[in-house]
Request: fold
Amino acid sequence: MKITIAQLNYHIGNFEGNTAKMISAIEEAKKEGAEIICFSELATCGYPPRDFLEFDDFIRLSDESIQELCTHAQGIAIVVGAPSHNRHPKGKSLFNSVYFLSDGQISFVQHKTLLPTYDVFDEYRYFEPAKAWNVVEYKGKKIALTVCEDIWDVGTDDPLYTIIPLDEMMKYAPDFIINVSASPFNFSHAQNRLNVVKANVERYKIPMFYINHCGAQTELIFDGGSIIMSENGALYDELPYFQECIRHYDLNEVQKGRSFSGQTKDKTALIHDAIVLGISDYFRKLGFSKAVLGLSGGIDSAVTAVMAARALGPENVRVLLMPSQFSTGHSVDDAMELVQKLGLPHDIIPIKDMYDAFMEKLSPIFGDLPFNVTEENIQARVRGILNMAISNKFGHILLNTTNKSEMAVGYGTLYGDLCGGLSVIGDVYKTEVYQLAEYINKDDVVIPINSISKPPSAELRPGQKDSDSLPEYDILDPILFQYVEKRKGPQDIIDMGYDPVLVRRILRLVNINEFKRHQTAPVLRVSSKAFGVGRRVPIVGKYLN
Amino acid sequence: MKITIAQLNYHIGNFEGNTAKMISAIEEAKKEGAEIICFSELATCGYPPRDFLEFDDFIRLSDESIQELCTHAQGIAIVVGAPSHNRHPKGKSLFNSVYFLSDGQISFVQHKTLLPTYDVFDEYRYFEPAKAWNVVEYKGKKIALTVCEDIWDVGTDDPLYTIIPLDEMMKYAPDFIINVSASPFNFSHAQNRLNVVKANVERYKIPMFYINHCGAQTELIFDGGSIIMSENGALYDELPYFQECIRHYDLNEVQKGRSFSGQTKDKTALIHDAIVLGISDYFRKLGFSKAVLGLSGGIDSAVTAVMAARALGPENVRVLLMPSQFSTGHSVDDAMELVQKLGLPHDIIPIKDMYDAFMEKLSPIFGDLPFNVTEENIQARVRGILNMAISNKFGHILLNTTNKSEMAVGYGTLYGDLCGGLSVIGDVYKTEVYQLAEYINKDDVVIPINSISKPPSAELRPGQKDSDSLPEYDILDPILFQYVEKRKGPQDIIDMGYDPVLVRRILRLVNINEFKRHQTAPVLRVSSKAFGVGRRVPIVGKYLN
Reply:
């Protein structure tokens, strides 16, 4: 039996585009003589459709896509994820389902059982879980159809669910498993996925075809990396990361197995490639092609500019150099070095006149009150206005250059440097930004050495350094990691050997700055816990602050 | 049997404060000879705690609160909501539970069965549903303990769940029902709650004590309105809306019933009172006392200023009048009329100099490109900087004055008039803002008549009116209502008799402006579908746009 895996990049709500893309893959599979072609989870409507699922009109469009795909299910069976209707009067009105289309019709539908409702996932918000399981029989083979999370509660010491759907399906002795997924990237997730597929294959002793979504949807980056695993638990093939790919397999060969070691999973390289895809898909899917960002001469904006240039082409990344009276001379020099290296369109706009215009009006109101964060913020906000003016006038999207360490402790100005349509490195700790810079410079110095080596500074008052108000990043970041990613409380972190006063101060900073994160751009998610949709913390809270 | 209902205002994560408040109520109940005192859902930690529930440290603090309450459960039983641990190895690690504390210990715990996971609710994200049910026996009475949603699937034609927990508990023949709730306000919800309590009482023929949370937690406003209903389905008492209240009841009297018609439920009055509480709790719980906002002379900022003055005191509401070269003369006059009526601290800062400073730098870059939304946005953003400068320098929170109609169609400038720590009327359509103004003016003209009667305008270009780019609000708002609140698709709305071109244009505007709403302040929720946490729509989507 010949099986085609189509790892495609869908666009939420773009039924026409998604269906056309699948039909094109079906035509290719037919030419290759495939008997089954597999797409990913909620492929008709894209993943995650969120509250669009609450619109009957949206579901109707998905149903129509399934009907259209049926007309192409002649001589080939199609496995595709889409919402389906719960006809029972009780429970939520939809299922998250995998359809089996053959002979021009829907011949089988299996609903998803395990509905992830944690981190970035809200599936129980929309779907009723499956309560019945079966397999589909096609050309003499019995196939167990599963949807993403359905295979994820196997091989764990701490099961999140009370049922394992494949255990139920095994009663019908399937020959192999297909899993249609939309499993978003984080830098350790490709390895997790391999481990999970392996745990399932070793439990059930049959091969698995695991088809992932590929492409970015706002903050979520789907990395592909679809997996074909032989029944002996050996990896048979792994599709590339971060790109569409259609491949054809012979079930007999997969069953036999072969020696294949998979792709390398270097953390920094994965983050780099994920972010480049995240930028390019954000622009493409919104119908934009050009970006603008402020280039300060520091490492964050430099790394952001390089990845934007790789995603959009350097000619489409316009940078603004906006020195203030507190900027050091080398800031503009360092920024210009990058501008020239990449060939970026750029403008230099000193901000002093605008800052002075504000201070002239505000000085009588401020009276004798000393220079403080207010005046620093005005500088950052003047830059925000300039960035947005270019964005508005020329139809560019402003890229935000704030890193995760700054996002965490609120080291940034709301409506100032926190402006932007997309946060590029908001899920990358400062220490990881340095790793990205090294990775970018590995063959050729792209990021100016001075941008990497000088002490980080916001340059909003004379001689300012980040370390004036924050601990060094190699101390700050591990504490943040324990709190944000690991959800450790203060005592747990102190017990790891960190200074108690510092730990409590940092955790307090994280919590009192929730109001800023509430209003910042969507953050490209590259870790297991990014700021944004996957982390929901009260603004008006009194915990640790 | 004497039963005390304590409708209290909790603060998320403030275990010390919440526990002290409950202990004080227990002392009062003991003085009144009460045998049972009832608090609301997740009262130890406040509702909704969101991802704080993922911190073991947070749960430990809640457990300690329960232990402390136990020491006061002498001579009185305490019914209180709090998280509890799922000791079974499978499933989520927490339950959302109601504890029954008596004789100094936890004598019974019933877990919540129906976990709302829609709109603003995310409970399945954190909790495992109950799979076992019982009643607690105390002083000869059997009591069915339920948590909020547990009673909400009764009396509906479209059940959301597959189980009804009270049906299970009825096997033990309870004498009455206690429901501990945290049920947030919307303007029709108090009536919904009465209907639901009545449907349950009529089904089970026993009295119900329904205890709601009271107080605002960022965007969610809990209105109290706790309900005591006699077994004949007649309302026995309804606690006040929007305030804390402790009352004592004799079960015999409740069983007998009495004639009581409840409180009036005038939509506009409820919205007004909800917003005033929403503002005051936001400030108090964040430790702030003073607000700043821009006063344009228009109706939105006038209504916002009045409600802020009622919440915080007029002396704590500082307003900025920031005329531009495009402002009409009466804008400042209308704003000053309100300033004088309320006695608000105010500053007048014309924005022309700052606008000109920007244009001087940008003109060479813009070249011959015509005046457009870019220049309009610069004016709005200059005002944003000024508002934030006052906010930063004097420790005020900036209030956002955008209404729901503008939020919906993106008629507002990101980082400009969309700035602010709290959106006061972001869930109030423009047509409802007029109703609020009339309500405020019902006994005395507070909002200047001219602010109400003049055609709405952003005044960002000469002679501009909202109706230049938007339909009249009495056409726009009903279309938005059908799309946002009712989740109707374009054809459904067109079939109601609206112009097809207009409907498609408006729905497109709503969807393409999701990126703005992603970055705006939390919105005080007063309707059944507010922008914010209860409405989750993809930014990168291709549905209807």
In short: Chain B has a mean pLDDT of 97. Residues 373-394 of chain B form the longest helix (22 residues). The first strand of chain B starts at residue 2 and ends at 7.
